[in-house]
Every structure is written in C-alpha cells, then in structure tokens.
Amino acid sequence: MKMDEKYSNATYGGAGITAFFASLSLQDWGFIAGVLIGALFTALTYFLNRREQMKRTRILQEIADKVDAKNPSATAQVVNDLSQKTSEV
C-alpha cells in the first residue's frame, strides 16, 4: 500500500505542475522570459565591470610600485609606458 501512495503522490504532483504551467498566458511567459533575460544581463554586467575594475587596480598598483618620489620625470615615463600598454590591450 505504501508503494501505491508514493506513485499516486508523484502522479498528482506532476499533474499539478503541468496544470500550473498550462494555465500561464502568453503575457505571463513573456514576463518570465523578460525576468530571466534581465537577470542574465545583470550578472554579465556585474562580472564584466568587475573584470575591468580589477584591470584598472592592477595597472594603478604597477604605477604605485614603480613610482620614484625623488625622480618625477622617471615617474612620468612609467605612467606613459603603462598608458601605451593599456591602449594596446
């Protein structure tokens, strides 16, 4: 008897899920698709911005590591070299 109840519950559960999705209108499906696409683009924007910010942080760290406070012209040369390097990327 226990085994029959298990299959009966699965059958009714599957039928309920099918009935729920069948009751959605085209407008509902469009809303769901819009939410999913919006979430996807939000995540992509976040990760692309994060990657760009990490690049900038690395470049600024390279400048900070190579800066010589006693020789401003050498510092200007380092900044110039790094700006040319970033424009190539």
From TrEMBL:
Transmembrane segments: 29-48
Keywords: Membrane, Transmembrane, Transmembrane helix
Protein name in the entry: Holin
Lineage, opening ranks: Bacteria, Pseudomonadati, Pseudomonadota, Gammaproteobacteria, Enterobacterales
